[in-house]
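[step 3/7] inverse_fold.run input=structure_tokens len=122
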């Protein structure tokens, strides 16, 4: 069995092909590479958005201070929710399979859940 993984993440532009007769071993190798891609994407995106993160955190602190003094509404809490949502979005890695619905997913679906439930995607 084999899987090819291509990416547009800087530093990971070259396609990787994993070949392994053991399905579980193949999926683990695939998952390890996807986890590497995810971490690289998180670092790059976080760096790109660092001004947004910093300014939002400053506003949250300011509004929370004002709210503690009774001079503000829940704006700090709302901003924290937005920051949490942004962080969740940044940690997601879209994975797209081409022509994989009829064959590939049918073959791997039994073992995929076991491999994806590991700690690598935390």
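[step 3/7] decode complete -> sequence:
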């Amino acid at each position: 069995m084999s899987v090819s993984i291509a990416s547009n993440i800087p530093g990971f532009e070259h396609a990787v092909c994993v070949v392994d007769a053991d399905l579980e071993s193949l999926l683990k190798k695939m998952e390890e590479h996807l986890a590497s891609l995810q971490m690289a994407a998180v670092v790059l995106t976080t760096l790109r958005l660092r001004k947004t993160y910093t300014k939002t955190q400053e506003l949250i602190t300011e509004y929370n201070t004002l709210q503690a003094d009774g001079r503000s509404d829940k704006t700090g809490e709302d901003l924290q929710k937005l920051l949490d949502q942004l962080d969740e979005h940044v940690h997601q890695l879209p994975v797209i399979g081409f022509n994989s619905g009829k064959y590939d997913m049918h073959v791997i679906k039994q073992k995929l859940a076991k491999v994806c439930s590991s700690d690598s995607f935390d």
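[step 4/7] annotate
The beta strands are 2-5, 16-19.
Residues 2-121 form one domain.
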